[in-house]
Amino acid sequence: MAHDHDHDAVTVTENVAEQRFEAHVGPHLAVAEYRRDGDTITFTHTGVPEEIEGRGVASALAYTALEQARAQELTVIPQCSFFVTYIRRHPEYANLIPTTYHPHQSEG
């Protein structure tokens, strides 16, 4: 996991119309889907095609999405299990989650 912050190879863009962050890697598209409700953003699903797994694509999606949320001072609800794990690994984002929120491990 030495390349955890090596996001240079992956360009992430926000598709507001589709409510998702997107990362294109060759012909493949990885997404981090969300729901926006006022000042709250709920991350519902992260999908990375098998062909590009293990390249830090999901981490790049989470990193970009959480940086955006922090910049916009949004409250983050990580329903997606990947986001729960990512925030646990990167506690600097933990303060974006309301203290009353307790994730359910079964969702993903």
Structural description of this entry:
- The structure is a single chain.
- By secondary structure, the protein is of the alpha+beta class.
- The chain has helices at 57-71, 81-89; strands at 12-15, 20-25, 28-37, 40-47, 75-78.
- Strands 1-2-3-4-5 form a five-stranded mixed sheet.
- The longest helix has 15 residues, at 57-71.
- It is globular.
- The protein starts with 11 loop residues before the first strand and ends in a 19-residue tail after the last helix.
List keywords for this structure.
globular; 5 strands; disordered N terminus; 2 helices; 108 residues
**What sequence of helices (H) and strands (E) makes up the elements?**
EEEEHEH
Please give the share of residues in helix: 10-25%
The main sheet orders its strands as 1-2-3-4-5
Number of strands: 5
Low-confidence stretches: 1-7
Name the overall outline. globular
In DSSP terms (H or I, runs of 4 or more residues), the helix count works out at 2
User: How big is the Rg?
Assistant: 13 Å
Beta-strand percent range: 25-35%
| End-to-end CA span | 22 Å
- Secondary structure class reads alpha+beta
Mean pLDDT: 89
Largest sheet: 5 strands, mixed
